[in-house]
Write a structure and sequence with these properties.
heterodimer, A: 499 residues, alpha+beta, Beta-lactamase, six-stranded mixed β-sheet, five-stranded antiparallel β-sheet, 17 strands, B: 467 residues, mainly alpha, three-stranded antiparallel β-sheet, 15 helices
Amino acid sequence: MNQRIRHLTVALIALFGILFVQLTNWQVLQRDTLVADARNNRITVREFDKMRGAIVTADGTVIAATEPIDPALRPNSRFDFQRVYPTQDLYANISGYYTLGFGSTQLERTHNDVLAGTTAQQQLESTGGLFSKEDLSGTVQLTLNNDIQKAAKRALGDREGSVVVMDPITGAVLAMYSNPTFDPNDVVAQTGSVGQTLTALQDDPRKPLLANAYQERYMPGSTFKIVTTTAGLETGTIDLMSVFKNSRSWTPPNTKKPIRNYGKKVCGGDLAEVFRRSCNIPFAQTAVNVGPVAMVDAATRFGFDAKVPFDLPGAAASTFGGTAEDFTDSLALLAIHGFGQGQVQITPLHMAMITSSVANAGVMMKPFVVQQTLTHNRNVIRRTNPEAWKTAMSATTAATMTQLMMGVAQSGTAACCLQLNGGISVAAKTGTAQLNAEGEKQRSHAWITAFAPAQAPRYAISVFIKGVNDAVSASTGGRLAGPVAKQVLDVALALPPSK
Amino acid sequence: MQQQPQALQPPFDNTLSRARRSVELGLVLLAGIITASAYVLASLGERASMPARIVPFMVFVLSLLVVTHVVVRFVARGADPLLLPTAALLHGLGYVMIARLSDHWAGLQATWSLVGVAAFALTLFFIERPSDLQNYQYTSLALGLGLLLLPMVPGIGFTSGGARIWVSIGPINFQPGEFAKILLAIFFASYLGQHRMQIARGDKKIFGYTLPALEHLAPILLAWAVSVVVMVGEKDLGSSLLFFTLFVVMLWIATERTSFLVVGVGLFAGGAFIAYKLFAHVQTRVDIWLNPWDQYTGRGYQPIQGLFALANGGMGGTGLGLGDPAAIPAAHNDFIFAALGEELGLLGTTAVLAAFVLLVGAGMRTALRAQSDFDKLLATGLTTIVAVQTFIIIGGVLRVVPLTGVTLPFMSYGGSSLVSNYVLLAILVRISDTTARGLHEVPDEASLSERFAAWRTRKTDAKADAS
């Protein structure tokens, strides 16, 4: 038997030889192919499954953080850490999300190095040794204020639209809420359905993944009259003494189609009156009188058709809807654009910036949401210094515009709905952007933009309510958006002034 | 002086047994040191800190190892010194990987380790001579078949992972097949040991080929047929293959007739083909084996994750605690070899393969040296079980053969597997010890039960003298 047992032993050892050959094949010969395979996410997982810093608001509210997974609660978890968004959908369009295999967005993407702890400064502050797993993750601190942000969400309710609140002097964004939105916790869950959740969000016709506050643009309606009036004042085409005759309709040059006022009303008077009543014809006439070149020039100085220098990715640019040549060919188009109809489109963020420039003596600041980034030792990596972007108008014009806008709030289209607590003075402009062609069913966006206190501005705000249903379309910017702005400004003005 | 038993007469030479046990103690301690170091490294890699329970862990590991060694030293002092340390090393490395994957499984596996070592000691205490087992030839057959059939019994048997191989009695779940393989090996060894000449010689000549009489072959064919049918019925392909190989190999070794081997391989090929045609679950297994990439999101996910893990490890491995083996489904069980491959690399997996080759080598050396046919056949059978089971599961992970769910001996998570493998190891240790006594390499002292019998006799005699 021994002979056979020896043969058997040799055969069995030969089997192990086969295993060794195949092992070498997988672990050495085919290694690179397997490691490079798109389905092999081991390296991604190693990068993903680490401690990651928090994103906090100016008042210290945590909007994104990473928590270690308790092995007692999830004994078979493949991961050690879980990203959480304690404020759920409140800041979704600012923080973005951080997923495994489906990428990351917004601050989670742009500030990945700080959050992961990989900037040079963070690495230099490391004191670790060979086996160290020192947590180097940094913190991103925002300019946003949680009280104002919550007020914005509450005031907007379930209506589609957005609220943007800025410090007009620095450009710091203090609140920016968009509805519809989403809960980033749904897409960072580690339970397989992330892809489906994201696809559903992407396919949603209401576009919850896009912040309508800064990633989409809309027809501004009468709020654009701030730009037209500024252009008229700066070019000397109009002044406070200008009087516009009462009229029901006016037909601009090169067309037979007449322009009418909102609600087909008869409207006229001096500049202050037509501005606060928001007549259309005077501004159509002003735009035509200012002329195509000077109007496009004014729009450019307000930042239209330019990339907005914002520190969140994917910010849309507003557009004046044509070049000087286009408007020279069609003064009728220019007339319509003069009161914010036609092809003019603007982001709600940009609307707040325009108002801010009035409040800031004509200087438009670069908007920003990141106040500063910090290392794990709380040392500053980078602090955002306020910077001017555009000079939209002279200080004198800005003062005149402030006066005109205060009239809107005191006795104009916003008088109904923007009386702030404590009688704090406010300057505003409303807008009701008509989306329907003449004769069709009324459909309109509601806008209001304002700053307060009018004489010593702390806040500039823009409220946009999308014209998705009859309830919105049947009303006006003042009546719909006005109360939202009042609620948010009341909360903001009750806060102690920041240093 | 004349009444002194023969075995205790000089020369009372314990040199060789002492040498063997010293080697064993050294190697066992080495296995313990490797296990503890791996445990510390895994914790440092995973959490950058020393394991919280390092002291209790080391005490536990060392006491298990020392206890097993002491048991061998007392009741099997002539045994091969390589068997126990090799198994301990594999057990330790497997445990470290399980603990690194999940505290939950680690806690249970620690308990099973304790039971396994107890089973090892009890087996050595109860089986004092391997030939004792021959007395239980048909008991082994009946018990083995009974255990195999147990999962088919409604109420206690249940299906998990596609195979109905589990039995649940009260709070305890176990796989009776793990123990059945040892019992059937005992039956085969015993039956073939007695009848091998008759079977080999044959009685009838058909077309110039001598066939053994049916009555000689019948019991063994029956045992084989029932086990294979049960295995196919329980959808446990891996065990089915294991039993078939065990049967053919033992028949071949016992009869020394190569034609049996050829016929066996032929039967296997035919059986495999028929099973493939008849059973959907066999087709599925083969399909996953041949085209895992086409079904990555389905059944191919596990084998491909296994390959990704191996590739991620490469030559040197990621280091213990630094890989991502939890990405492989059932990494603590069927795929523990891939998990080890990720963190220890080709160097580590080769070491593990080498340890298995050493274990198989030590088992086969035991078979070669054994003095009786039964001992030889049993040692060969048991070693073949370890070797083939290892090949089936590692080969499945490496896509050498279709993947079938069997455990990796001593390494995979699982109580039935660990305990049965320790029983198997104890029998091999016993056979090698008995051989050493038979060859007068170590003194053939009286066993515990013999001493007890002698004590009883002396007492009775004393009483008789007194009366």
